[in-house]
Design brief:
The complex is a heterodimer of chains A (501) and B (333). Chain A is built from 18 helices and 20 strands. With 501 residues, chain A is an alpha/beta fold. Chain A has three domains: 223 residues, Rossmann fold (3-Layer(aba) Sandwich); 165 residues, P-loop containing nucleotide triphosphate hydrolases (Rossmann fold); 64 residues, no CATH class. In chain A, a hairpin with a 2-residue loop joins strand 14 and strand 15. In chain A, helix 12 crosses helix 13 and helix 12 packs parallel to helix 14. Chain B is mainly α and 333 residues long. Chain B has one domain: Orthogonal Bundle (ABC transporter involved in vitamin B12 uptake, BtuC). Chain B is 78% helix and 0% strand. In chain B, helix 1 packs parallel to helix 12. Chain B is globular and about 55 Å long. The chains are: A alpha/beta (501), B mainly alpha (333). At the A-B interface, helix 2 and helix 3 of A face helix 1, helix 8 and helix 9 of B.
Chain lengths: 501, 333
């Protein structure tokens, strides 16, 4: 037993009547990268909180190098050699980088050399964190954790919102820990990263550890079936893009036409057409102008130049309400910016109907209830915690943001990275939902940071680099290497001859 | 060779860091510098209106509320707010006045005891906020009534006394007219408490929990303890406010003056973000003096008192708006 670096057994944690963890165990060998897998709500986050001392478990033991370990705060966990890095960096925005380092008592020289490893060699330590790009802050957070050489490094969805080039750097640095006397616990929804990086995977389901899998050929399917469990309905496979859907609406004007849109320094010249019944994928590395594009299309930002056309007519949006009136809605990746977290599921779904422009007077309660019930039913939203949306899991929250538009006759959807930080089962449901929307005649623009989503959910893909459209291809040709090269601004013709085959 | 290059590179890095530091200091203090300029202009204007008006009168009158603003600023930087400030000032004011009247020979221990009471009250406020998990604004609103009631229990009507050395400590000037004793006392006390704190991990933690509490927790900051420290300091500065009220008026008054609202107004004027995490203590102090001068000037101009408060409010909003606009322009430029 002493050859294990970290061993947790029988961990349980209840919040009131809700059991977040029933019987979770995890054993990590020195020098391994160990994946912690599970659908949303399986108890991953709670186990992470227990390991990092953020909550204390009701039952269970945690041994570090064979020694019983009982910590009550992240500060204590840090001292015992356990450091975690989350999707949202634990960096204080109003302090400088140097102050953030001294707050965590991080040695500056070690931090600097880790930043060099991670590809950011000349960071100004006197810069205020608020002024740095989010991706840089994530790297700073990781470098800071690495700098104190923790016995166990816990990466919780750290790569979920990182651009592809930085993700590659991070994975490289993490892989270098393999074979040392330290280890990494790696949490990611991206199966490819897990398969490429990890030695073993522990799978949680409904608060229990249901299996430990050695990563080898075929492990992915094994992990997925463990995550889904025997009781779950057979998983729907990745949606098959239907070519028929794209041609169905060919004779009517396109749902949305963008012509040479530009805004500020980031968005220079973007044009595309989105047809009814089509899912158009949008691929871009972080900061290539996609944020501005989505803001323009959803009426939050007015373009400096260029034109928008909705169903054959020129359109100018001064406010998101204008876009909604024109039947165009944004489903953001960050659920919290779309939902009223402290209000109920019903209110959140009902809101666009109630708050529709030019509508006054009392709410028609019965019609409202019907509408909401239909939407909940259609999306199979888990409404156990429906009194406050913020208590739902990420996947269910995302379903609510989509559901609210379903019944209001919206015909054009702008999805901004809708599956970020969502488990694989819910992801599949969202792909299916996107396909269903298109099949029902909607036009869908889908920005994704996960390149394999393009072939799963889209008919066509547009690649943006440096604020311009650099490539366009049918989904069949949009395999990951092709997209990745295009997204980095490399020529496709030379890179993927016969990519469509 | 490589070593030399390394050293050189590090040296260059340090140079850049130093330049960044100066730049940041200037950026961060631009607001305070602007406030000082406004203050100087106002003071010259006042001197023209009323040549007899001295800085010492302003400094004495502003001392209690300046201490209140400093305490409030610390709590607000930590992401909270202390609505009980005025009541704690009243309570420490009447407590010190009562004790000093009955035992003037024990004045030094009494002063220390009152400071300890202030600190203790602040810690109680902080512990209640942390333990009850009720929002700061609710807890300290409740404590506003509690401490106001206790002040009335201590002294039912204005009374009590003071000792001469307390009054002498803050009266008059130190040689030249521009160095009133009350200002020196304020700066020394604030400096002794704040400067070492600002450079410590505890001081960073106060800014950290106000800026992003979750990130601070995950960075290993003890959020609860830091919050209690911030409220404790606020209580300490409130008791300094109460003591200076005793010193300047010579009596204890159980009904608090408008210290709470003035302290919040001053920190907003002083560049402290009400959302927490940003600002310093110098700005609020200058803010208090500006508000005091404006009030004095409006008096000299014989503006009707009711109208005068309207003007004070308008000036405050205008200063904050213009300041925010200039900051925004600087950032986008």
């Amino acid at each position: 037993m002493t050859d294990l670096l970290l061993e947790a057994t029988g961990v349980a944690k209840h919040y009131g009547a809700v059991a977040a963890l029933r019987d979770a165990s995890l054993s990590v060998r020195p020098g391994e990268v160990h994946a912690l897998m599970g659908a949303n709500g399986a108890g991953k986050s709670t186990l992470v909180k227990v390991l990092t001392g953020a909550v204390s478990p009701d039952a269970g033991t945690i041994l570090l190098r064979g020694q019983s370990r009982n910590v009550h705060s992240p500060a204590e966990a840090r001292r015992t050699g356990m450091v975690s890095v989350y999707q949202e960096p634990a960096i204080i925005p109003d302090l400088t980088v140097a102050q953030n380092l001294s707050l965590t008592e991080t040695p500056v020289d070690a931090f600097r050399s880790r930043m060099i490893d991670l590809g950011i060699p000349n960071l100004d330590l006197s810069a205020t964190a608020r002024d740095l790009p989010l991706a840089t802050l994530r790297i700073i957070d990781l470098a800071r954790a690495l700098a104190i050489e923790p016995a166990v490094l816990l990466l919780d969805e750290m790569t979920a919102a990182l651009p592809a080039d930085l993700t590659a750097r991070v994975l490289e640095v993490v892989a270098a820990i393999r074979g040392t006397d330290r280890s990494v616990i790696f949490i990611s929804h991206r199966m490819l990263e897990v398969a490429g990086l990890c030695d073993r995977a522990t799978v949680l389901r409904e608060g229990r550890t249901v299996g430990v899998v050695d990563i080898a050929a075929g492990a992915e399917e094994q992990i997925v079936s463990l995550m889904l469990g025997p009781t779950a309905s057979a998983p729907r496979g990745p949606a098959e893009p239907t070519a028929a859907a794209a041609t169905a609406g060919a004779d009517e004007p396109p749902r949305l036409v963008a012509r040479s849109l530009s805004a500020g320094r980031n968005l220079r010249d973007v044009s595309f057409e989105l047809h009814a019944g089509e899912v158009l994928g949008l691929v871009a590395l972080e900061g290539q102008g996609q944020d501005e594009l989505f803001e323009i299309l959803s009426g939050q930002l007015r373009p400096d130049a260029g034109e928008l056309e909705v169903e054959g007519r020129a359109a100018t949006f001064r406010h998101p309400a204008d876009a909604i009136r024109a039947g165009i809605v944004l489903v953001p990746g960050d659920r919290s910016s779309a939902l009223l977290g402290q209000r109920s599921v019903s209110e959140n779904i009902g809101l666009p109907g109630i708050a529709s422009p030019r509508r006054w007077g009392l709410i028609n309660g019965r019609a409202e209830k019907r509408r909401v019930a239909a939407a909940i039913d259609r999306l199979q939203i888990d409404t156990r915690a429906q009194s406050e949306v913020r208590r739902l899991s990420g996947g269910n929250q995302q379903k609510v943001t989509i559901a609210r538009w379903l019944e209001s006759g919206v015909r054009t959807f702008l999805f901004y990275d809708p599956t970020r930080g969502i488990d694989i089962r819910t992801k599949r449901e969202i792909y299916q939902l996107v396909r269903d929307l298109a099949a029902a005649g909607a036009g869908v623009l889908l920005l994704s940071s996960e390149l394999d989503e393009i072939q799963r959910a889209c008919d066509r893909a547009v690649v943006i680099f440096g604020g311009r459209v650099v490539d366009e291809m049918p989904a069949a040709a949009a395999d990951e290497p092709t997209l990745l090269r295009a997204a980095h601004g490399l020529e496709r013709a030379a890179a993927a001859p016969g990519g469509a085959a | 060779m490589t070593e030399a290059a390394g050293t050189e590179e590090r040296g260059a890095g340090r140079g850049a860091a130093a330049r960044g530091l100066i730049g940041r200091a200037m950026r961060g203090d631009a607001w305070t510098v602007g406030l000082v300029a406004i203050f100087v202009a106002l003071f010259v204007f006042t001197k023209l209106l009323q040549p007899a008006y001295g800085l010492d009168a302003l400094a004495i009158a502003s001392l209690p509320v300046a201490f209140a603003a400093v305490g409030q600023a610390i709590v607000v930087i930590s992401g909270g707010i202390d609505l009980s400030m005025g009541s704690v000032i009243a309570l420490t004011n009447v407590t010190s006045a009562l004790l000093l009247m009955n035992a003037p020979e024990l004045s030094v221990p009494i002063v220390l005891l009152v400071l300890l009471i202030g600190l203790g009250i602040g810690v109680v406020n902080g512990v209640l906020v942390v333990v009850s998990r009720v929002p700061d604004i609710v807890v300290t609103l409740a404590m506003l009534f509690v401490w106001a009631g206790v002040a009335l229990l201590v002294l039912g009507s204005p009374g009590g006394g003071s000792v001469p050395w307390l009054r002498e400590l803050i009266t008059g000037t130190l040689g030249v007219e521009l160095l009133p004793r009350a200002l020196i006392v304020l700066l020394v006390v604030v400096g002794v408490v704040w400067i070492p704190l600002r450079r410590s991990r505890l001081g960073l933690s106060i800014y950290a929990i106000g800026s992003d509490q979750l990130a601070a927790f995950r960075s290993g900051v003890n959020v609860a303890r830091t919050k209690i420290v911030a409220y404790g300091l606020a209580g300490l500065f409130a008791s300094l406010g109460g003591l200076s009220l005793t010193a300047s008026t010579g009596v204890g008054t159980p009904i608090p003056g408008p210290y709470l609202l003035l302290s919040v107004a001053a920190i907003v004027l002083g560049g402290v973000s009400l959302a927490g995490g940003r600002g310093g203590l110098l700005g609020p102090i200058v803010g208090i003096y500006i508000l005091g001068l404006i009030r004095a000037d409006l008096g000299f101009l014989r503006v009707e008192p009711a109208f005068s408060t309207v003007i004070q409010g308008v000036i405050m909003v205008a200063v904050v708006m213009v300041g925010a606009y200039l900051t925004l322009r600087r950032r986008t430029a």
